[in-house]
Amino acid sequence: MAILITGGAGFIGSNFVLDWFEKTNEEIINIDALTYSGNIKNLESLKNNSNLFFLQGSINDKTFLKKAFEDFKPRAVINFAAESHVDRSISSPENFIQTNIIGIFNLLEISREYWESLVLDSKNNFRFYHISTDEVYGELKPDDPSFKEDNPYIPNSPYSASKASSDHLVRAWNKTYGLPTLISNCSNNFGPFQYPEKLIPLCIINALQNKEIPIYGDGKQVRDWLYVKDHCSAVRKILDKGLPGETYNVGGNNEKTNLEVVSCICDVLNKIRPRENNKSYKELIVHIEDRPGHDKRYSINSSKIFENINWAPKESFESGIYKTVNWYLENPEWLKELMSEEFKKWMEFQYK
User: Fold this and answer.
1) Rounded distance, CA 236 to CA 76, Å?
2) Which among 114, 129, 137, 159 is annotated as catalytic?
3) What CATH number has the domain spanning 2-191+226-251+296-315?
4) Residue 134 appears among annotated catalytic residues
5) Which of 61, 103, 55, 57 is nearest to 79 (CA)?
6) What is the per-residue pLDDT for 336?
7) Which one of 35, 118, 315, 349 has the lowest number of neighbouring Cβ atoms within 10 Å?
8) Helix axes 258-272, 199-208, angle to 10 degrees
């Protein structure tokens, strides 16, 4: 038995692989194109694990995908592969269309062909699981109730529009062809191995280098924050107990403004890694021009997954952020390798 994972060298995917092998020895076939945010070194601790197989390739390559299915015959597919950074989707939307829409179409078609060839028992047990985002639901006002699974899709960025498109494709392949699909829409993840363009690792890195910590606009944009290991446990539960054709929202019950998030990180750093001048890291915070189409609030209602599958997050934001900051402090070499000239140019361009 084996599961096939796409995007398993990225942030959430690699955390899932590591978490999977803490709980089971079932084989994983890990497919990743190793684009800028994919890092096979995230899985260095598993280099001698004979149950982990890595295949470098893209979900845009149907021939490559078909061979992977034929060679390994997985019982399930979990799709983590995605272009996921809203800022990059604004400046380079084509990459998001190719990966998040065309790539998912390819993966669905190859999965359907493979599924239709299975004997009855294997066919009934097969699952196609697509990892998505709460951003497909659009923007909430301050007093609006949290997103539920039946909220309409109102995406506002090229990223969220591409993810909404992929969700619709997955649903259609279930309703039209009978492919046993699962979808989960999660809130903002944070934790180890997150590429440093995202808010939390960017804040940690800049603070440690005594650089300005940029915050878009007034910093009052609200997000629900989910510690990545809690997300991994939800994915395992949904794969095991989720009903085909269903969608599950996965949240951390941690609504924070961006300014609150950055302030919390600064407080942690002030305690465990004080600056040489003993000044607060909060003095490094600067407000910059807001990005186009910036949604003001996301909030996830996770009651369905709690009531139907008995899952709830274990980490509070405070406990999760403490673990996250410590991880980045303890892994300076991992960070150093990512600080390429290309990354520096991107940061200069994005936060000029």
Assistant:
1) 12
2) 159
3) 3.40.50.720
4) yes
5) 103
6) 81
7) 349
8) 40
